[in-house]
Amino acid sequence: MRPGLPEIKDIFGPGGQLSREIAEYEIRPQQTEFANQVLEVLRDGGTLLIEAATGVGKSLGYLVPSVAVSLSRQSPVIISTNTKNLQEQLINNDVPIASRIFGGEFTAAVLKGRGNYLCLRKWRQLLEGDGNKRVEAFVRGVSSSLPSFPCGDLAEMGASRDFSLWERVASDPTTCLSSACAHAGDCYWRKARRKASQADIVIVNHSLLFSDVGCERTLLPEHDTIILDEAHNVERVATEHFGVEVTGARVKREMERLVSAGGVFQSVRKKLGRRLPKLRRLAISSKIQEIERTLEELSGISERAFSRLSELMQAMGVCNSVRFGDERLSLPGAFQEMAFACSRVEERLSGLLANVRENAELIKDTEEIVTEITGGSERWKSLTSNLVFLWEASRPEFVYWVELRHGDDLALKACPVWVREEMREHLFSQLRALVLTSATMAVAGSLDHFMFRMGLEGDYQPRRAVIDSPFDHTRQVTVMVPCDFVDPRHEQFSASTSELLIRLLEAAPHKALVLFTAHDMLGQVYAAIAGPLREKGFSVFGQGLDGARSEIMESFKSSRRAVLLGTASFWEGIDLPGEALEMVIVVRLPFPVPDEPLVMARSESLMAEGKDPFKEYFLPEAVIKLRQGFGRLIRRRTDRGAVIILDPRIARSSYGSVFVKSLPTAIEPCAASELPEKVSAWFRNVNVATETAAAKTPLKKTGKRG
Ligand code: SF4
Fold first, then answer.
1. What pLDDT, on the 0 to 100 scale, is given for residue 703?
2. What is the distance, to the nearest Å, from the Cα of residue 651 to the centroid of all Cα atoms in its chain?
3. How many domains does the chain have?
4. Could you tell me if 280 and 387 lie in one domain?
5. For position 341, what pLDDT does the model report?
6. Exposed, middle or buried by CB within 10 Å (0-12, 13-18, 19+), for 137?
7. Do both 388 and 494 map to the same domain?
8. Strand 539-542, strand 562-566: pairing
9. Is residue 287 part of a domain?
10. Considering 403, 438, 467, which residue would you say is the last residue of a domain?
11. Is 162 part of any domain?
12. Which of 110, 397, 671, 696 is 20 to 30 A from 409, alpha carbon to alpha carbon?
């Protein structure tokens, strides 16, 4: 019998199951309201956009209704997040709590992107191949951590980040033997999918969700109900997914997959065996040699194409990205040659495949070889079509650009300017019930901008709600703005910021996160403040200057007095409660960079529609990002701290009020010269208030002493 749906108040409300089951459970009316709204949509169908601030308890708030509806309808609910941290929180914290409520009657599974799982067949091939030092080091790393990761998750294993080797052992649809594989029974990917196919709740990330869309919805179990958490990231992931990219490194990796030690050709040569008559063996070998020659030619063409492009960018003074396909930059003709060469590789791989098939009965492990060559051929076909698409640059609804990556690698990229149509057609229209939630979707309390960006307009009439924070922001946080500070567009801004930061941290030596919008400025400020602050006993960490993000985060957490300077990825996804983070300093209002290709194209598109790009795009984007940065500070009811916005435009400009209305507490304007002392005084007062409150609280009885 299908279970009926529970009353939300009986679970989340006073005296409800959660407070009976969990001693420290905190009743929050906001969580009950959130869960009620989610339950209604999951039960009745439709779309719900619901913003819920940090502290509402969103994840449990949607998990409980999801389990109830999944069990009642006997159909899985997919929960998609942007970050691994949230997936881990769901499976390790929220699912066990929900299990206690539902008496362990449901199952939940996490499914990651296929490339995360180790392919045992390819792994065995790599072990059997003639390795070099690089391969041996990789094999040692994976072998030593494999026993601790029974899910075969390469990312979890901390295996060497040698991406080209990783790709060679990762599960991949183009080289999978499926049920014919000798390892099918133990295959990590197949096991993970089987588990997901039997689960009531399937936890995935946005990227896998869009891969499922691209694979005609064959990756995930059949479903019609989705919760999208961290929904403010969905558009970005969709844009990447519906886009195209070719990098010099990717071309090299594809070549390596064919010709390197343990690669496809070595494996084919080994398996030709004695049963194959000499002439036929020679015919196959000569086909391989022919492809190797084409690859050598391609290597030269690719090098020429990318270095010519790099020269052009240098001549134009471009140091990060530039659009092409218009009057600004034409791709060098070598890219067209490159596309031809890639198609020749593909054709020749098909010729080799035909030859291997003709001799199938005489070759060892033919099926394995056929799969490897077919997979290679499919990847070269996709590389060719991507290069042709980029070379032609003819779709007006796309933006095309070149981007400089780490290590001087160049990426040719294209993506749709907007993904509203794509998301509507491929995702939203396929669902019975959809919930989009995040702590930061609204601008000045309105979800209109988010709806526009997601294409939830016209026929779509989603329900909307904004749930307030359970925190007392007026008491827990101060937001100060030095109104007379230098304008961020002034050349003095960087030097003045450095000087003010040193004074501020000396006066209020609390752990601080300084958020930048550009690496250049971060570098300048870091160079100016690191020495003086270190002399005063601070640890100073700079993104991209003191190690990888995770290393910096660990060092910052374990330091007593520390300041962390970060850009893009540090504006969200950081959860440092209590004294681990007490100040967030926003250096300038985080407007999108106007000359970034996608930003520029969106701006032009809005102008063409007669809209104001500043009002419709730049301002709402910056507001949402500022709210994300703000959200790093207050993570718990007991947290307190200061947000300092150094960009005086928030107080001085006509649009500043939109930012102010979007923050959970009022800003306090002050003079830059007074700022350090004001912040310090605020912390002193807050500490006194906390101590007084603690002194007034009677001690809890702790039972008899021994
Ligand atoms: S079934 Fe496919 S993914 Fe799994 S081990 Fe075999 S080839 Fe690899």
1. 34
2. 32
3. 3
4. yes
5. 96
6. middle
7. no
8. parallel
9. yes
10. 467
11. no
12. 397
Ligand 1 binding pocket includes 190 (Cβ within 6 Å): yes
- Which atom of ligand 1 is closest in space to residue 190's alpha carbon? 4
**Token pair recorded at residue 243:** 């886009």
Backbone angles phi, psi at 204, to 5 degrees: -135, 180
* Residue 326: predicted pLDDT: 65
pLDDT at residue 697, rounded to an integer: 53
Residues with pLDDT less than 70, the chain: 1-3, 130-131, 155-162, 326-328, 689-706
Tokens of 588: 């300038």
Instruction: Indicate whether 573 and 453 sit together in one domain.
Output: no
The whole domain housing 371 covers: 244-417
Is the minimum distance from the CB of 121 to ligand 1 under 6 angstroms? yes
Cβ burial, residue 396 (10 Å; 0-12/13-18/19+): exposed
**C-alpha–C-alpha distance, residues 259 and 554, integer Å:** 40
Indicate the residue type of 668. Answer: E
First-to-last C-alpha distance (Å) of the chain: 53
* One domain for residues 554 and 514: yes
- DSSP assigned state of 665: S
What pLDDT does 696 receive? Answer: 60
Where does residue 585 fall: left (phi above 0), alpha (psi -120 to 50 degrees), or beta otherwise?
beta
- Strands ordered across the beta sheet of 583-586: 539-542, 562-566, 512-515, 583-586, 641-645, 477-482, 667-670
CATH number at residue 620: 3.40.50.300
In a domain, 700, yes or no: no
pLDDT of residue 305: 95
Please indicate, yes or no, whether residues 570 and 684 belong to a single structural domain of this protein.
yes
| Residues composing the chain | 706
Burial class (CB in 10 A: 0-12, 13-18, 19+), 429: exposed
Look at residue 342 and tell me if it is in a domain: yes
Residue 184 CB–ligand 1 contact under 6 Å: yes
Q: How would you classify residue 230: left for phi > 0, otherwise alpha for psi between -120 and 50, otherwise beta? A: left
CB atoms within 10 A of CB 87: 20
Supply the pLDDT for residue 700: 41
Residues 6+ apart with CB under 8 A from 691: none
271 shares its domain with 338: yes
101 in the same domain as 225 = yes
What is the distance between the alpha carbons of residues 159 and 615, in angstroms, rounded to a whole number? 46
At CA 274, angle to CA 268 and CA 276, rounded to 5?
Answer: 70
One domain for residues 568 and 672: yes
Pocket test for ligand 1, best of 125, 169, 177 (most atoms within 8 A of CB): 177
**Cβ burial, residue 225 (10 Å; 0-12/13-18/19+):** buried
CATH number, position 375: 1.10.275
Most distant CA pair in the chain: distance in Å? Answer: 95
Q: Give the ligand 1 atom nearest the CA of 175.
A: 7
Q: Residue 705: its pLDDT value, please?
A: 33
Q: What atom in ligand 1 is closest to the CA of residue 178? A: 1
Domain end, chosen from 467, 500, 528, is at 467
